Structures are given as C-alpha cells and as structure tokens.
C-alpha cells in the first residue's frame, strides 16, 4: 500500500508513476492511496502533484526482499586425505536483495571466511561462497557451518538471520598396505594365533578389519599404539591342505587387502619307544612283493616314507 499526499491547498493533477501493477483504493483532496500487486522485483515509484501550475514529485524506492530461509553447506569430499585440499561451499537458493547479504563460513565457532555481496551484486551473481582448505589432523571431525545475514536496516527494514545444518569433516591417512603375521604351517584342529597389522594410519581407532581363513570368517580383537593398529585372532583349521588367510582393511573411502597362503597339516601318529636292546628296522623293496628289512636307517619305499618298526626280538 502506497499513500501519496501533498500540502498544496488546491492541488491539480496527481498520480503515481511506476512499472509495477497498481490499483487506486482511496483518495482525498490532498492524497491518493494505491495498492501495488504482484511485486517481484525492486523498483522506484514516483509520486507527483501539480500545485499552482507547477508539478512537484517525490521518489520512493521499493525493495523486494526474501529472507534467507534455506542455507545449504557442502563439504567436498566428506572424507579427505591428510594434506589434501577440500572445498567448503555454501549457497542460499532464494534470497533478495543480494547486495544486502553476507555469508560467513564457520569451523566450529571460528570464522573461516566471510563474503558480502554489496559491491558484487549483478544479475548473474549467485548467493554462494566457496573456500578451499588444506586438511590437517586437527580438522578431523570438526563441524563446519554457514551463517547468512540479510541486513535491510539501511533501507528501513529489518535484520534476518539463518544458518545451515552442520557438516562433519573426516580426515584420514592410509598409505600402507596391511601385513599378515602367521605361521606358514598350521596343524589341523589346533588353535593358532594370527595377526594383521596396519601402520601409518589415521585415525587408527576407526579402522575396520575383516579376516578370513578360506571361507571361515574370524573374529579379531583390535589393539592400537600411535598410528598402528593390529587385528588379532585365533584360527582353528579343520581340513588339511592349502588355504588362504586374508585380511580386509577399510577406513572411509579406502580399502586394502592382504593375503597369505598357509598349509594345514595333520600330525603324524605317535609310536612307542623301542625296548632296550631293540633296533629300528627299515623295509625296502626293489620289486612289488619283495621286501628287505634291515636295521639302522630311514629309507623310502616306492617313493613313500615308511613308518619305523622295531624288532621285538629279545
């Protein structure tokens, strides 16, 4: 609603010049009142009256404003390698007038970067700010946010504030491959300790391990010291032969895998000690069905080891 009035005692022709859609809703000898419809942009309105043949006018600036109701913060990427550069971006989808806007990027409660649009506002300008930061360990799990302020006090209006939701940044270091510690020979049915180690990793306590012996998933427990983490497990193989022990390690977007081949063997049966005076015998053959038994040494028989036998003679 706009009221245009004059102190001229006997005014002549009067009215309002504007590009906006207007409707006169009231008038008197020294005033006229107009309703402005569908205001979508800022404009200047001119009110004029003629007094004693002289036209006098007054201008009124009309500011179309939209408070910053939505403020969007983006971290790109969400997981960042140590010493790499990450981008903090904030934008306001709908806000006006742009030249009255200030955007402030915050890391925790600390001001990271501020941008006002007073001298930058042009038709193509977007309500956004972008800032690049080099990742440090102390940035891990820091909260980042963006604050928008629309200040219309210089135009006779108010002050509007809005903030984005916080975003959590994660920093990582993952430059080494995991290493498996295991004996190359494991006895079937016997519990054996195995370990998977990852060094130079940050944050060590957020590393995830999955360990397998063949298709059997193990249940490791973790231990840490500085930037090194170990996954320790107990394995019990129930079948003989070669099997693969694997260790899958992940942290954020990074994954590594280590493998070791182990041989599962069955222990030879125990034999009684010979009686006093008896001698260990050997048995060899030169042709099927022809065996020679003698004392003193281990021999092979048809490509196979023979188990020792003992003479039972007194």
UniProtKB/TrEMBL annotation:
Subcellular localization(s) per the UniProt record: Membrane
Record field: transmembrane: none
Pfam families tied to this protein: ICAM1_3_5_D2, ICAM_N
GO molecular function: integrin binding
Annotated Intercellular adhesion molecule N-terminal domain residues: 2-70
Sequence segments annotated as region (Disordered): 1-22
Keywords: Cell adhesion, Disulfide bond, Glycoprotein, Immunoglobulin domain, Membrane, Repeat, Signal, Transmembrane, Transmembrane helix
Domain Intercellular adhesion molecule 1/3/5 D2: 178-265
Organism ancestry: Eukaryota, Metazoa, Chordata, Craniata, Vertebrata
GO annotation terms (biological process): cell-cell adhesion
PANTHER family, sorted: CELL ADHESION MOLECULE TCAM-1, INTERCELLULAR ADHESION MOLECULE
Mode of membrane association: Single-pass type I membrane protein
Protein name: Intercellular adhesion molecule 2
Domain of life: Eukaryota
InterPro entries, sorted: ICAM1_3_5_D2, ICAM_N, ICAM_VCAM, ICAM_VCAM_N, Ig-like_dom_sf, Ig-like_fold
GO cellular component: plasma membrane
Family: Belongs to the immunoglobulin superfamily. ICAM family.
